[in-house]
Amino acid sequence: MSIADAPVRAVISPSASLDRAARRVLAANWRRGATVPAGGLYPHQWSWDSAFIALGLRHFSPVRAQRELESLFGAQWTDGRVPHIVFDPLVPADAYFPGPAFWRSADVAGAPGVPTSGIVQPPAHALAAWETFRAAPAVARSRRFLERLYPRLVAWHDFLLTARDLRGRGLVSVVHPWESGMDNSPAWDVPLSRVVPLPPAELARRDLAHAAAAERPTDTDYGRYIRLARDYRDSGYRETPGFAVEDPLCNALLAAGEHALASIAAEIGLDPARHLARAQQVTDALMAELWDVTAGTFFAYDVVGDAVLRSYSIAGLLPVVVPDLPVATDLVKTALGDRFRLADACPVPSYDLTAADHEAGRYWRGPGWINTSWLFWYGLRLHGETGLADDLRDRLLARVRTAGFREYLDPLTGAGFGTDDFSWTAALTLDLIRTGPRR
């Protein structure tokens, strides 16, 4: 019996058919130990995608959910970094750009045997590992899942809190827009404007074969991404960046991840105190450095330009995933306002609906994504906003029923964009179905 045909428990129609369809997407995108985000556009393993995918897999195939994370961390570098792409050697070298020949990880001491990129993505992994354990503790204990993954998760967080604390303020910097997970967010426009783009002739844009140009980053933005990645590669992946931003989302996931590591440590018989202390330190730094009380949101900080980036992106709302965050109520109030319209926009917009440069269909410049909406839903539940959480869950599922498992959607009309059969959309749909409402 395939995973797509696994029994459905405690699921009633119409969710049953959506549940089955989501499992079919994940079955089709499985590749010998990991799940690709989408077979055409993204034919390799992506870092934070695997974290979100594990959250869906845990409900019906806990071993496969655990293997998803184990596979990713099997490609961890010796300095602790978890690369944002793990390349499948069986996929043609020119199927994705920039591919293994661009990143040249084999030339770097401490890189794994499998080819990878050299940059990272947001640290959603410890949270995913803990939630995966909680779904099937007996299975995880029999496989010693947490015992084996814990030291790798610690090394990953250690890398971020040392090599990437570029200002010495206790916050992690991303050194490429791709590391934020929100590639072409308007929040990065100012620091990116200092980067001279490579000409379009030097960009082998495979993405445009799978999605419309109007839904993807522009050639100018892409030219800047490739220049930054090339310069970082040519430095030997040393932290001397031309782009460095303290991102609220990445730091919030790190703080939440430290709370998860505390739970993992306690489960495997270790002292959780170190992780609780680090979680508090990151939370305190978030509040001191990135919180804007007047705006009611967190703003990113441009380390190279030494300036606050006053851009209302969903990243500024997502510290709501941090336990005991003192301003969670303020973030909910901002989300309910005109910029994000939580009460009726769905998925939660990635960028300010009232901004002149909002684009509802272009990648991270306005459309809503299931993963960031899932994080906000998770935060609503965490902070006792049960009614808002249940309403958002119901509307997210309704959007997916109508649009399918699209990469991203117009937050007002629900129109789907990007690639079809996107894995984290399917996985998080499963999680929303299986977790159910609290009302």
Automatic annotation (TrEMBL):
Classification via SUPFAM superfamilies: Six-hairpin glycosidases
Positions of the Mannosylglycerate hydrolase MGH1-like glycoside hydrolase domain: 42-425
Domain of life: Bacteria
Official protein name in the record: Mannosylglycerate hydrolase MGH1-like glycoside hydrolase domain-containing protein
Matches recorded under Pfam families: MGH1-like_GH
UniProt-listed PANTHER family: MANNOSYL-OLIGOSACCHARIDE GLUCOSIDASE
InterPro entries given in the database record: 6-hairpin_glycosidase_sf, 6hp_glycosidase-like_sf, Glycoside_hydrolase_63, MGH1-like_GH
Keywords: Glycosidase, Hydrolase
Family per similarity comment: Belongs to the glycosyl hydrolase 63 family.
Source organism phylogeny: Bacteria, Bacillati, Actinomycetota, Actinomycetes, Micromonosporales
